[in-house]
Design goal:
The protein is α/β, with parallel strands linked by helices. Helices cover about 45% and strands about 15% of the residues.
Length: about 350
């Protein structure tokens, strides 16, 4: 804060009274303030844990004390969440976690001495008629912005970071806008040792179990009856990777999930299907390759070969970007540390 914090005169924002390391935020709407603080002030307690500050509620006000940088991050977090409530949204624990991450990241990115601290948080969004998704981590924010500007995007990293969910959400948004005419969903897991011919039903029924995460995201973004009609009409298409050969995918949002399980030839075949006015999103986790030993992952090769190709964006998620249960992030971190140590040992032996 470095001196007096400016006091907002707008009723949409909290009034602020402060000194160097201590200030009071007062919110005009008592109901919103209660929702903002959380049941038994659980959201304020989360702020305290993450930012190492002291945050105490007094009616519709909160007294924040601590390090200058951290207290400013707390202010921006609460200001953003309060505005979200004013716009008709809700505030869950995950929203608080996401806002804190973004507030911290905003300061981490300020490397030039002439740059001023951001007065408020701005997060990328994906919106359809049914749902609006707001970035919860800096990497999600970068990913969502990359999806808007690039024709081909690679989203790679551990499970639970939202890379597949956001890809499907973006595709649904493009379809709803009329920017594309169809959505094509593909996944190579069915080619990694499983034999579709021995599964009952038609092709859709054979591949449905492998595409369930993509379906779940679709139903979150589009009403269920519209999803079913779109599948029947071919507007949403389920296309096993092996069936992509020879096609040109035009006017479509095309998603390849679990791409770490493609071979090099499958990946090349898939990427060269890109047609006029289409977007491709390739997601996967290079640490979870199910291919037979000795078979090179097409995703790993593509990330290396296409790193500097114009028009392609690559966003890499890490364990800190996991937005599921906090324990998932710690599990991913533990596994990554073990694999890194094992790879380093193998390299030394070679």
């Amino acid at each position: 804060m470095n001196g007096q914090e400016l006091v907002s005169t707008s009723p949409r924002h909290p009034r602020i009274a402060s000194d160097a390391n201590h200030f009071v935020l007062t919110f005009e709407n008592n109901r919103f303030a209660s929702e903002l603080f959380g049941q038994f002030d659980q959201n304020l307690k989360l702020l305290e844990q993450r930012l190492h500050i002291d945050a105490r509620a007094r009616g519709n006000s909160v007294v924040i004390t601590g390090d200058v940088l951290a207290t400013n991050q707390a202010r921006r977090t609460l200001d953003y969440l309060y505005e979200k409530l004013q716009k008709g949204g809700s505030v869950e624990r995950s929203d608080v976690e996401g806002a804190i991450r973004m507030a911290v990241a905003a300061d981490d990115q300020l490397t030039l001495p002439t740059m001023e601290k951001k007065a408020k948080l701005t997060m990328a969004q994906i919106s359809t008629r049914k749902k609006t998704i707001i970035a919860r981590t800096p990497t999600q924010d970068a990913y969502m912005r990359a999806l808007e500007r690039s024709e081909m995007v690679f989203g790679v990293g551990p499970a639970g970071t939202g890379k597949t969910y956001l890809a499907v959400a973006h595709a649904a948004q493009l379809l709803e806008r009329g920017a594309v005419e169809k959505i094509i969903l593909s996944r190579p897991a069915v080619e990694a040792g499983e034999r579709l011919g021995f599964l009952p039903g038609d092709m859709k029924e054979k591949v449905d179990p492998y595409l369930r995460p993509l379906y779940d995201a679709l139903y979150d973004m589009i009403p269920g009856d519209k999803v079913e009609r779109a599948i029947t009409a071919g507007v949403i298409e389920i296309a096993p990777l092996a069936f992509m050969r020879g096609r040109t995918l035009a006017n479509a949002a095309v998603i390849l999930d679990e791409a770490q399980n493609t071979t090099a030839m499958q990946m090349k075949m898939f990427l060269t299907r890109l047609g006029e006015n289409s977007r491709m999103i390739i997601t996967g986790d290079p640490s979870q390759i199910d291919l037979p030993r000795g078979v090179k992952s097409g995703l790993v090769e593509a990330l290396h070969l296409l790193n500097d190709v114009e028009g392609i964006s690559t966003v890499r998620f890490k364990d800190v970007d996991v937005v599921r249960h906090p324990l998932v992030g710690r599990i991913v971190k533990a596994y990554d540390a073990t694999y890194t140590a094992a790879n380093e040992e193998a390299s030394r032996q070679d």
